[in-house]
Amino acid sequence: MQPTGYQQYRTVSTVTGGPGELLLLLYQAAIKNVGQGRTAIECGRPSVAHSHLMRAQEIVTTLQTTLDFQRGGEIATRLAELYGFVQRRLITANVSKTTEPLDEVLPILRQLLSAWQAAVRESTRKAS
């Protein structure tokens, strides 16, 4: 199967993007997968929900493991706590196939995405 233009764009963006852009892609993918998992739960499609929620968990694990506690200090510590909370709620939602934990997680991920978007914009502005 040939990749679509969008898939090619995402692949090139992932390969050529800087760390900030990659971070934003991870948050966007996590939000998308949580949303799709939520929809699958509402539609009574537990195996589809499981797949999306597992992908979201993998992304959050990636975010956790890439934290730099030396350079990040207090912020990295707070993010680790938030990621731990998000992980626990994703697991709860996946095991129980309920949407309430996802309703807690989505605003957190969206707020973090928004904050990182602002940080990446500022970093890009300073670099130019």
Q: Label the CATH architecture.
A: Up-down Bundle
Number of helical runs?
Answer: 5
Biggest β-sheet: count, sense, barrel? none
The helix content, as a percent range, equals over 70%
Question: Could you please describe the fold and organization of this structure?
Answer:
The chain contains 5 helices and no strands. It has a single domain, classed as Four Helix Bundle (Hemerythrin (Met), subunit A) (Up-down Bundle). The protein is elongated. It is mostly helical and 128 residues long. 88% of the residues lie in helices and 0% in strands. Residues 5-16 have low confidence and may be disordered.
Helix-strand layout with pairing:
Elements: H1 5-16, H2 19-42, H3 46-65, H4 69-96, H5 100-127
Helix pairs in contact: 2-3, 2-5, 3-4, 4-5
Concise structural overview:
The chain has helices spanning 5-16, 19-42, 46-65, 69-96, 100-127.
Features:
128 residues, mainly alpha, Four Helix Bundle (Hemerythrin (Met), subunit A), 88% helix
